Amino acid sequence: MRYRIIPNIIIKIIFVLGTAISLYQGHFINSSLIFIFSFIVFFCFWYLGFIGGGDVKAICVFTLAIKPDFIAFYFILIGILGAMQVVIMIAYDCLFKKVQIKKGIPYGIPISISSFMLLIISLLAN
């Protein structure tokens, strides 16, 4: 069986790099507060079974690197890309009669794309 796992080593590397970026750009305190708040909110979503633990960690560590001005757009973009992914998965299930969506939605894809885009925007906006 194939598992959708975000390795902890990746999360640790992003945490260190995100912390360094926020210190360098001067938004460490605000980003840390957003990180803590995000963790509390998404931990509740994980506890209720709405999202995977790796997704929670990934979403939260990227908040350290992204400028606080862009955090709302970050979460909106994750939602938009996630919705697009759901539509594609449903279409795939209907076309090929494979029930992939019941295994869950791999949110690592929209999280990664959103994080990369907003990280680049944050770095260029400095």
Distance between the termini: 44 Å
Helix/strand-derived category reads: mainly alpha
The number of domains is 1
Shape verdict: elongated
If you average the pLDDT, what whole number results? 91
Q: Name the helicity range.
A: over 70%
What share of residues are in beta strands? under 5%
Transmembrane segments: 6-24, 31-51, 71-92, 104-125
GO molecular function, one term: aspartic-type endopeptidase activity
Domain Prepilin type IV endopeptidase peptidase: 2-84
Pfam families: Peptidase_A24
Based on the model shown, name its key terms.
0% strand; 5 helices; single chain; 126 residues; mainly alpha
List the helices and strands and how they pair.
Elements: H1 8-25, H2 28-47, H3 53-65, H4 71-96, H5 108-124
Helix pairs in contact: 1-3, 2-3, 3-5, 4-5
Protein architecture, described:
The protein is mainly α and 126 residues long. Helix content is 75%, strand content 0%. The protein has helices at 8-25, 28-47, 53-65, 71-96, 108-124. It is elongated. The termini are far apart. The mean pLDDT is 91. The chain crosses the membrane at residues 6-24, 31-51, 71-92, 104-125. This is Prepilin type IV endopeptidase peptidase domain-containing protein.
